[in-house]
């Protein structure tokens, strides 16, 4: 029997400038998602939670809170871009290019635009990607540039964290 250590994502060595990752999951935005996030973040703009008010605005319906839609697209990219990251270093050039509505399904894709070894941490490298979010119709709804510090394959920090069962090995 082979036991495979818990692991997801890519290490610094796996990234190649120019490679595109079409992140595997999509996420449909519900009214509850938008309302909860808007209330939790104290966003008082009624275009996010008052259908009567939003109907009078130029778009004519509730727009999903952009903080939430950005967080969802970021989250969709984690499995490929930053699952093995030790920290985000920054986001630049954030653009919200198309409104997101309740019922839309968001997808994300990222292209690696730069990578370099860390000067201060020999066990890590810095990967920079451009990420964009798409809705179910293929409309680009947002984009940004993000730099993230990612562990190298031989870094010890993200290994050996899975607990050992006190009762011994698992049996069939």
TrEMBL record:
<dbReference type="Pfam" id="PF19315">
    <property type="entry name" value="MC_hydratase"/>
</dbReference>
<protein>
    <submittedName>
        <fullName>Acyl dehydratase</fullName>
    </submittedName>
</protein>
<dbReference type="InterPro" id="IPR048274">
    <property type="entry name" value="MC_hydratase"/>
</dbReference>
<dbReference type="InterPro" id="IPR029069">
    <property type="entry name" value="HotDog_dom_sf"/>
</dbReference>
<dbReference type="InterPro" id="IPR052342">
    <property type="entry name" value="MCH/BMMD"/>
</dbReference>
<dbReference type="GO" id="GO:0016829">
    <property type="term" value="F:lyase activity"/>
</dbReference>
